[in-house]
Amino acid sequence: MTSKNIAEIKRKNEYTITSSIEEKMKYPIVLVKWLDSCVKIGWTKDHNDANLIPIDSVGFLIYEDNRIIKLALSNCVDLDFGEIITIPQSVVVKRTTLSAKKVKK
């Protein structure tokens, strides 16, 4: 493979990646800060060791209603989703919509 072939492959991949990002932006990418439950194993007199745990989850926002938020961690070009997490709205502390920026070379 020549350096010209490698450069051509890189150009094609850059186009594919850019096209995929723009297509996937149909579903906004969000950061959800939420509180998860905690289990303390064993007997204790100190209940302060078992607290809610702050969690940050990032993904494609694919569904939301007044009870839940669903994030997909993976999204295929044909709009199949993978690794979906369902978070109750009652434990959401903050939600931020993230934006993608093109990197100049």
Could you describe the 3D structure shown?
By secondary structure, this protein is α+β, with helices and mostly antiparallel strands. It has a domain at 27-98. Helices cover 21% and strands 41% of the residues. It is built from 1 helix and 5 strands. The protein has one helix at 3-24; strands spanning 29-36, 53-64, 68-75, 81-88, 92-98. It has a 5-stranded antiparallel sheet, with no helix packed on it. β2 (53-64) and β3 (68-75) form a beta hairpin. The longest helix has 22 residues, at 3-24. It is elongated. The two termini are 23 Å apart. The model has no long low-confidence stretch (mean pLDDT 79).
Can you summarize this structure?
The chain has about 100 residues and is an alpha+beta fold.
How many strands, which pairing sense, and closed or not: the largest β-sheet? 5 strands, antiparallel
Describe the strand arrangement of the main beta sheet, using strand numbers.
4-3-2-1-5
**Strand pairing plus helix content: what structural class?**
alpha+beta
Give the overall pLDDT as a whole number: 79
Give the overall shape, derived from the CA principal axes: elongated
Radius of gyration: 20 Å
Sequence of secondary-structure elements:
HEEEEE
Helix content: 10-25%
Strand content: 35-45%
Number of helices: 1
Distance between the termini: 23 Å
State the low-pLDDT regions, or none: none
Number of strands: 5
